[in-house]
Design a protein that fits this description.
The protein has 5 helices and 12 strands. With about 350 residues, it is of the alpha+beta class.
Length: about 350
Amino acid sequence: MRQQKLSALLISSLVCAFGVFAEEQPKAEDLVGKSYLGVHGMRMNTDDDRLAPNDVDFIEHANGVGAEAGYRLSEFSELRLSYTHLNLTRTGWAPSTPSGKNIAANYLYFPTKQNFYVMGGASVIDVIDSDVSANVGAGYRHYLSERSAVYFEGNGHYQFDNKYTDLSAQIGFIYFFGDTAKKVVRSIPAKAPVAPAKVAPVVAQPIDSDNDGVVDSKDQCKTTPAANKVDSNGCTVFSEGNDELRLQVNFDNSKAVVKAEYLDNIKLAADFLTKYPHTSLAIKGHTSIQGSAAFNKKLSQQRADAIVAVLTDEFGIDSSRLTAQGMGEEELLNTANNAAAHAENRRIEAKVSVKTKVAVKR
């Protein structure tokens, strides 16, 4: 009967949680690397065998309040430390009932990166006797804003020494700290007007209007720039050249946010694509070897997509000229397993070359 009562307590907490829908749900990737602090209230139904200090009455339940601190490790996981001060309630009568506490370290896993999570960890529960217990549970987090949230969760605790089984329900409020990278928008500077070339003064016959050394009567290219070398027909002499674009942008760990320091480099790529409108650009995203291969594959695709978004949204490049491909950890620049190598491998790369005609100068 007691177990049914405790199960109903846990289920009712979770049902209440799932009845709330997040209004300002932040992206999981924006929470990675952030810490939070919080406060909570707890109701713990203790094991029927817990005796009060008089060894006659039993501890029936406990109510308490506490505080916690957490850190978002990845889009899927968090670590959390918490302390709860417990006021004990017992059966029968005694001069006084001492207070207790619960100190817990838990790992939270968000299977969909959103609100629902499962958890596991260890607790030191001090209810008359201080014992180490293992605990598992589940909860639901409802975001009030991009930084604040309330949560509801239930846990089961098993203490190894005395084989006590306790159940708890907890409701709390948390607030995240740390900056979220904001997209930097820069306007494209207006190009300065180009002053028209001054026309050389008209001289007496024979007339050479463009001053290229070939008279107008024989000149088949009558507007050749004066600085260019021309052939016998008055047309510019060209040599073949090669114009090349190479773009590399590095990212922070587990991030796909383009940092402001790379926007000038991306603008140079946009200028190249504007100069050569027949070209297209293939962007490859890469990661370090940290994390799972599946996660890295998805993250590298997000990095390549982020560069496409900057080129299209901020610099007006047609998306049909851009392709994005996530390579994951398949093409490492540095195969070492250290921080410097990981930072070097978290990147996108893009390159294209164009055959050009270059005017030969006099």
